[in-house]
Design brief:
heterodimer; A: 75 residues; 75% helix; elongated; B: 522 residues; 0% strand
Chain lengths: 75, 522
């Protein structure tokens, strides 16, 4: 998930620098905000989504571990 | 007395009461450095957000949106990603390994004394410029907002931060951050709602109006307003944020204040959610500010420059949509933001000087808790005096470089060492020191030779290094040298250090008895 987010941000950076016309063009006809702005907002929501998914996944894994009686071996 | 002064005085009074309360609960070293590990995930999440949301990320980014438009998004998406990196790769493992400072985690497998010396030096290199930049900003802001002198502003912030840290330690600092985060997020959201209300909550209409009134027109919402086609600067900026956030000592310390890894994870996730949401609020407010202030005869007659400088955009916007009372509130929140951030910085320096440098390096682990706490408090007072002195010395100077340096240093020294120690079996002390020190020297050197110092401060025509952010060069260099010097390390100690990775991995993933940990003291 972390790798996907890094790729998204890199894609945003590369497209903004090398394809400013594409990123600046409106997503829908008549709109003012371009694709780049929508892409940035999408990245921020993706980051929040990944954070929520990650916490839920790890909490669930921990709960399953506790039910199975997996005790941490300790240092 | 105006509304700004009243709001700020209310903030100061409440934080001093909290400090009084915290002082009675701060009895041990663990209380002072890590709030006794009693902070909950939710509380720590707000405190993390407070640490991450400085005056620069509020006043600065709204101002930058006003002048540069689209290119502010490079900052915003990088900041969002940086918190994802902290959550996914750092928070939980660090909590399971460390006690009070990030050096605790690194020293579990590597030689303690040189690593702790390195940690103390990097913490100072990150915190002191950051502290001076914040104090200079406080002095400047206080002149514009409260009709006080620069000296009064700097001294007020310096004295208050010293009181918070010296008496209340991490407990007081955490609660100051929580109050500030709530005020800042609340104030930011109310400001955005008031701005949107001017356009009947039609975001598209606000964007259209911004494009109509700004001299750059539609180009405002297209890439290139700040960095043009400079890919190296854009990537360097992204890397500085990504690595820098995950390497800032005062942010890393926050993960030791919660009772376990689960709470650390939840606090990082909440902090991330707050920071990301707040950045979107900041961007939209910036666009709204353009729509409201550009070409306004009072605030921005020429449409580009703002009366009082770009940092005043948020304050002017608050005045335009909410009158003097709301402007005062936002101004006081901005000032409180600076105060909270400098308190966190001071605590991180006090902790590393007393815990890493004094107790471990100078006293070889032979000092007791009382002695260590005395050194911490003395460091906080000394740093307060030093910070105020340096801020007075820097009055009127271009301190932009001081805001650039901390992230670059953290990304090129602390972050590579911390990441490699947690994820690469092959790292040895020699590699960590070679990479860490080189990354620090390279980032400082390239910033000095770059446009911020060479042209901005020294006054030369052309910089010797053309980029403001050196991270694209200094961070890979740090990783490369850490790898090379570790691979070629043939000492017997290096074999032991590599062999220690398995025990470290178990501890990282499952936790361990933090207070009984033994470091490799040599």
């Amino acid at each position: 998930m972390g790798g996907a987010l890094v790729l998204l941000v890199l894609a945003f950076d590369f497209l903004s620098v090398f394809a400013p016309g594409f990123m600046g063009a409106p997503l829908l006809p008549g709109a003012v905000a371009g694709r780049g702005i929508h892409f940035a907002v999408f990245i921020m929501f993706a980051v929040i989504g990944v954070a929520i998914a990650c916490v839920r996944l790890l909490n669930r894994e921990e709960a399953h571990g506790a039910v199975r009686g997996d005790s941490p071996p300790g240092p | 007395m105006n509304s700004a002064a009243l709001t700020f005085l209310a903030f100061v009074a409440s934080t001093l009461l909290i400090t009084h309360w915290a002082a009675r609960r701060t009895r041990s070293r663990s209380d002072f450095y890590a709030a006794g590990g009693r902070i909950t995930g939710v509380q720590n999440g707000f405190a993390i957000a407070g640490d991450a949301m400085s005056a620069a990320s509020f006043l600065g980014l709204i101002g930058l949106t006003f002048t540069a438009g689209y290119d502010v998004l490079y900052f915003i998406v990088s900041l969002g990603l940086s918190w994802a990196i902290v959550l996914l790769f750092v928070a939980e493992r660090l909590r399971n390994l460390g006690r009070y400072t990030f050096a605790d985690a690194v020293c579990l497998r590597l030689e303690a004394r040189p690593i702790r010396s390195f940690a103390a030096l990097t913490t100072l290199a990150v915190a002191v410029p950051y502290l001076i930049a914040q104090l200079v900003a406080a002095g400047t802001l206080v002149q514009q907002l409260f009709a006080l002198s620069y000296v009064q502003g700097v001294v007020a912030v310096g004295v208050l931060m010293t009181i918070y840290v010296t008496f209340g330690g991490m407990i007081a600092t955490t609660w100051v951050q929580i109050i500030k985060a709530v005020l800042l997020v609340g104030g930011g959201v109310v400001l955005l709602v008031c701005v949107l209300a001017q356009f009947d909550f039609n975001v598209a209409a606000m964007f259209r109006r911004a494009v109509e009134v700004h001299p750059r027109g539609l180009a405002l919402l297209r890439p290139g307003g700040l960095y043009g086609g400079d890919m190296i600067t854009v990537l360097s900026l992204s890397l500085a944020f990504i690595g820098g956030t995950a390497g800032l000592p005062h942010v890393l310390m926050r993960f030791f204040t919660v009772p376990d890894a689960r709470e650390a994870r939840q606090s990082a996730a909440l902090g991330l959610g707050l920071v990301c949401s707040f950045q979107l609020v900041v961007f939209l407010t910036g666009i709204g500010a353009i729509a409201l202030l550009a070409n306004h005869p009072v605030y921005s007659p020429d449409g580009i420059n703002v009366v009082g400088g770009s940092n005043m955009v948020a304050i002017h916007t608050a005045r335009e949509v909410g009158g003097e009372l709301f402007m005062g509130f936002i101004a006081a929140v901005a000032f409180a933001t600076i105060l909270a951030v400098v308190a966190g910085l001071t605590l991180s320096v006090a902790a590393t000087i007393s815990h890493d440098l004094y107790a471990s390096v100078l006293r070889h682990g032979q000092s007791n808790e009382i002695e260590e706490l005395r050194v911490s408090r003395a460091t906080a007072i000394l740093l307060g005096v030093l910070g105020v002195g340096l801020a007075l010395l820097f009055e009127g100077q271009n301190v932009a470089v001081l805001a650039t340096l901390p992230l670059a240093i953290a990304a090129s020294s602390c972050f590579p060492v911390l990441l490699l120690v947690m994820y690469w079996r092959g790292l040895t002390t020699r590699g960590a020191l070679a990479g860490g020190y080189t990354g620090m020297a390279a980032s400082v050197g390239l910033v000095v030779l770059g446009p911020s110092v060479w042209v901005g401060a020294f006054g030369f025509d052309e910089p010797l290094f053309p980029y403001a952010y050196p991270t694209l060069f200094s961070m890979p260099l740090a990783f490369l040298l850490a790898w090379w010097f570790s691979r070629t390390d043939l000492r017997s100690a290096a074999v032991t250090e590599r062999g220690g990775f398995d025990a470290l991995l178990v501890r990282m993933l499952h936790g361990g008895a933090r207070d009984t940990q033994t470091h490799r003291e040599h």
